[in-house]
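ok so I'm stuck.
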Amino acid sequence: MTSHHDAIIVGAGVGGMITALRLAAHGRSVLVCERNAAVGGKLAVYQRDGFTFDMGPSLLTLPTVFDDAFRLAGTTLADECDLIRLDPSFRYFWPDGSTVTFRDEPVATAEALES
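replied:
not stuck anymore, here's the structure
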């Protein structure tokens, strides 16, 4: 049996899944191919000996992009995910011992970068 797809997406990470969702929302037939046992790409987790490790970022940038995708699927990001705003958002550590801290508010981040 031969099947036709308007698009074939290789990789079921965030980008692949959102691309497939957008194409399907516009009436396209989409096939998503993923080599791993689970979808998610960098959002995947690795479990071993009772511990769970995030395989990718723990910071959600551009939440409006995700919310748009969830809305295409008939729901919202807020309805599906419990997001926690952190302050500081993240901190970089450099080999010379210096650090750069990114705060929740842009003004606070700018002040931290100037100091």
